[in-house]
Design goal:
This protein has about 400 residues and is mainly alpha-helical. The protein contains 22 helices and no strands. The N and C termini lie far apart (about 80 Å). The relative contact order is 0.04.
Length: about 400
Amino acid sequence: MVNRVKHPILFFGLYGIVFMFSVLDNTNTLTAETSKNPKQLYSSILAVSGLKQKEDFAKGFRSFGNESIPYILNLLDDQNYWNRIAGIKGSEFFRNQDLNSKILQLYKRDHMTNSESKEFLVSRYIELETIILNQIENEKDAGVQKKLLGLVPLPIPNESKLFLISKIKDLKFANRVEIHSILKSEIKLGKSAKEDQLFLRSFLDDPILRIPTLEFIEETGSNEDLNIFLDIIKETSSSYTEIGPSLRAMQKWGSISIQKSNYETLLQNAKEDRTKYMSMLLFFNIKSESLRLSLCKIATSHSAQEMRLVAALSLVYYDSATNIPCLERMATEKIESAPNPTLGDLAIGILTFGISGFKKARDESNRRIHFAERQTTINSHLNYLRKKE
């Protein structure tokens, strides 16, 4: 017979410890369930170890009515953030100004309870609307003010809408861009009137709001707006932040001839590599001899590997053996140890429509896999062209 328990003392000792903690947890549960007053329940919440248990226990405060409020306030002030979260959960059953005020302060300053306090405040926004707007009005810290603006729900309630409109017009208000974003979100949900769109578009010449307004027009406008963006593309002094949405607008609404002529000009004359890079990504299927020559020059001699790579990929769409010398460098080149941060982030931003979370996925492993895949495409086309010679 095989003796499976080689150390019986250790075996029973471990089970004894497990049993002891099981009894303790059960004792805490019984204490919470049979609490005769909020003080006992408060003590049970402090004694229990798990966050879920603390939250479940805190729901018991509703049984004791307003007598519970001092103890919930104590939880909201506790040094242990799990106890503060339990306090927020316990507050859900009360309509009390002190609790609301305390949780609003937690939301402003306590990042450990941010999601729970925000959920609580958003669920009561209409009740707290005037208070929250007053907090936004008087908050001196721009970061905290922006955070408070994040509580405004969609569709935007009338009082808040009037407040936001007044503040976006106030040139001294720190978070005008954030308000623009909130108003834009409501419009994109189809929850606003036509005049709201015209109102946001009116900030096109505002130096602070020009870029978000251009982005708004590109996202919600029509081909009637194309000339706004073409003028920006043709203006040599335009910044890249202006050109970005302008290129996307041209891709959506511009004819092939418009795209081709502007793409040719940008590859030859654009001041910033980012502009050339974005153009190559957006208009890779546009072809001409002028473009081919510009792409060949970039693919063979540009200092940034990412620029050379994208130019070579654009040349894959040309079925001409004259491109063989243009592709040979990138076909055999080793990946550089570090990517150009501006161009790398730009590529991912464009391919994922600007969703910032995707940028974090560009770890070293994915970068190398992506490079190898694109280089394989270049090599495959290069071999095809060589067979044609």
